Write the C-alpha cells for this entry.
Amino acid sequence: MKSIRDRRTEKLANNVSEYTEQALETIRKMQETAQTPEELKDIDELSEEQMQMLSPEAFSRVAFDKAQAEKGGYSDYSYWGSTLRMFFRQKFPVFLLCLLVLIVAFTSVQPYIPGQRDANRINDNEITGVPDSNVPPSGKYWLGTNAIGQDLWSRIWFGARTSLYIGFVVAFADAVIGIVMGLLWGYVRKLDFLFTELYNVLSNVPQTIILILISYIMRPGMNTMIVAMAATGWLALARFIRNQVVIIRDRDYNLASRCLGTPTRRIILKNLLPHMVSVIMLRMALSIPMAIGNEVFLTYVGLGLPITIPSLGNLINEGRKIVTVPSLHFQLIAPAAVLSIVTISFYLIGNAFSDAADPRNHV
Amino acid sequence: MLGYLVKRLLRSVITLFIIVVIVFVMLRQMPVEGYFNDYDNMTPEAVQNALQNMGLLDPIPTQLTRFIKDFVRGDLGVSYRYRVNYPIAKIVADKAPLSLTFGGIAMLIGLPLGFGLGILMARSKGKWIAGIGTAYIVIMQSVPLAVIYLVIQLVFTSLFRIPLLYSSSNPRTWILPIATLALPTIATYGLWLRRYMVDEQNRDYIKLAKAKGVPSKFIWYRHVFRNAVVPLVQLIPASILATLSGSIYVESLYSIPGMGGLLVDVIKRQDNTMVQALVILFAAVSILGLLLGDLLMVLVDPRISLTAKTRTR
C-alpha cells in the first residue's frame, strides 16, 4: 500500500509534467504563428537563428531622451487632478463653492449694475424731501434703509466686498509669511532659537490683545487692520511647516536628493512643500472667515473702519444700536445672514478641500 | 520635576518681560492727549509741566524700570481719563470678580456639556445626532461670535420678555449672559474631545480589549475617554483664567460692569495708561494660564515626565 506521502509526491509529479507540457505547447504555438520577422511584436520571441537573419538596416540607435527618462519615474497619477476629483465628489461643499463664487462675482459687479444706489448716499424722499430713514424692506429699498436713510442693499454688498477683500489679502499674507518663515525656521538651524523664542512670546499672548494693541497704536484704517491680523496669523502655519521640514528634511530620499546635487530651492519646492499642500490650503481657507471675524471684532471694539467705508463689521456694529427696537431688527438680520453664509462656506469648503488634498484619501 | 518647574517659570517671566517692554515702548509713541482729561483747554506749558510731574518726560528705560517695580508690587499706575487719578489696580479689583463669577459659572455649565457633546458625537458617529453636533460646532467655529451673541440677545430677550440689559438685582437677566458665554466653551471642548476619542478608538489596545470581550461601556469610559481627555486638561486652567479678563462681547452687549467692557471703554476714551495696564494684565493672565496648563498636564498624565526625557537623552 502506498503511503500518503508517496501519493502526494506522485500527484505533484503529475502536476509538474502537466504544466510543463502546457508551457511547451504554448511556445510551440507561438513559434508557429511567428513565422516572419515583420509579424513579430516582440524581439524576445525570436529564436537565435531568426535573430541572425534580421537585416541591420531595420534598426537605429535610440538617442537619450530626458523626457522619456523622467517618464519612467512617474505614474499617470496627477495630484491636482485627484484632489479636484475628490473635492467635486462632495455635493454640499461644491454647492457652497458655487454660492461663494456667485457672491464674490456679484459683489464685484454690483456697483456697475444700473439703478444701484451709492452705499453712502443719504436718500431723500421725493415728496417730502426728508431723508428716508428706517424704511422697512420694500420694492424701492430691497433691504430697507438705516437710521440716516442709506440704502442697506447697497451697503451690504459694499460691506461684503470690503470684508472679502480684507479676508483674501490677510489669507494671502498669512500663507506667504507663514511659508517663508516656516521654511527659514526649519531649514536654517541658526535661526531656530530666535524663531522659537519669537513664537513662544507671540503665542503666549491672546491674539485679540495683539490685534487691539496694533490697531490702537497705528491709525485706524484698512491697512492697519490687515497688518494687525497678519502680524499673528502666520504663526500657526509657520510652526506646522517648521515641524514638517524638521521631520522630512533628513529622510533618505532627501539625503539622496542632496547627494545628487539637487539645489536647496528644488528640494524645498519639489520634495518638501507638496507634503504640506493640504494644510496650507486649509489654513488659507480658514484664515478668511477668521479675518472677517477679526474685522467684526475690531470694529466692535471701536478700532475698525470709518462708517464711510461700509464693511460687514460696520453693519453688524450699527445693528447693535437698534437691538432695543424690534421693528428695526431687519437692519441687523440681513448683514448677519450674509456674514454667516460667507464664513460658514469658507470654513466648510476649506475642510472639504483639505480632506481632498490629502493624498492618503486618493486611493 | 522641580528643575522643569523652575525652567518653565523662568521662561514665562522672560516672555512677560518682553511683552511688557514692547507694550510699554509702543504706548510711549502715542499722542500725549491720552494722559489728560481736558487737553484742549490746556496751555502747552501746562501740558509740559503735567507730563514732567507724571514722570513721562524721563528717559524710557527709567520709566520702564519704575513701571516694572510698581507692577511687581501690584501697582498698575493711575488712570488719567477713565477716572481721573484713580489707581487702576482698584478699578480692576472692583470689576474682575464680576467677570470671574460670570465666566466661572459659564465654565461650570459649559465643561460638562462640552464633554457630554464630545462623547455623544464620538459614540454616535455617522448618525443624525453627530450631524447636529457637527453643524453646531461649525457654526460656533466659523461665524463671528459678535453676530451669534447679537442674534441670541435679539431673539431671546424678545421671546422670553427678559430685560435687555444686566441688572444685579434681577437674576433673570443673568441667564442669557451665562448661557451665551457657555456656548463657545461647549463647542470647543466638544470638538476636541470627539476628535481625540475617535483617534483613541482606533488604537490597537482598544481593538484588543474589544476582541477579548471587555464590556463596551468600560472601554469607552475607562480607556477611550480617560486617554482622550488628557490633552484637554491642558486647556482648562487657561480657559478659567481667561474668564478673568471677561468677554468683551457679552459684557458690553448686556452692559455688565466687568473687565471685558472696561477694555472697550478705555480704548474709546484713549486712556493710554489704562490700555497699557489692561493689555499687560491680560497677557500676564494668559501666560499664567498656559503655565498652569503645562504643569497640570504633568500631574494628570503619568506618561509625561518632562525631567526623565532630558535624562535619557
